[in-house]
Amino acid sequence: xxxxxxxxxxxxxxxxTFVWVGVLTVWFWKYNLLISRLFPSSEGREQSLAGYxxxxxxxxxxxxxxxxxxxxxxxxxxxxxxxxxQDTGGSQSFSLALLDGLGDGLVVTSLHSxxxxxxxAKSVKKGKHTDIDFSQEEKDVIVEATK
Length: 147
Fold this sequence. Notes:
single chain, 3 helices, five-stranded antiparallel beta sheet, rod-shaped, alpha+beta
């Protein structure tokens, strides 16, 4: 009575499946094309990142060396004039601290009296004396220079 529709239904489902696979294939192809444009090949990206980090590392090393050189340059100084002897007039004696960024350098002291003037130089290492003790005035200029 009824014609056999099973074959027709199967043909229809086959055509629908074929069209659906075609649509998905086109969509997948466009999606891959978009992704490849947004994110170029990973090999090139890895090489460019490696080059970038290499340049960055070299620049950081250059800046470290530059900072080390800056620390060794004369940066801090202080001068104090005073009268060490009561019998002479005026504050003609002085102590001068000349230090680098690490607190290394020297203190120059000139003591003026009626009999003459004497000049001393004492080395400073990290804000401390190395071999000869400092006078109070020399300690004061070191503290002033390291502020």
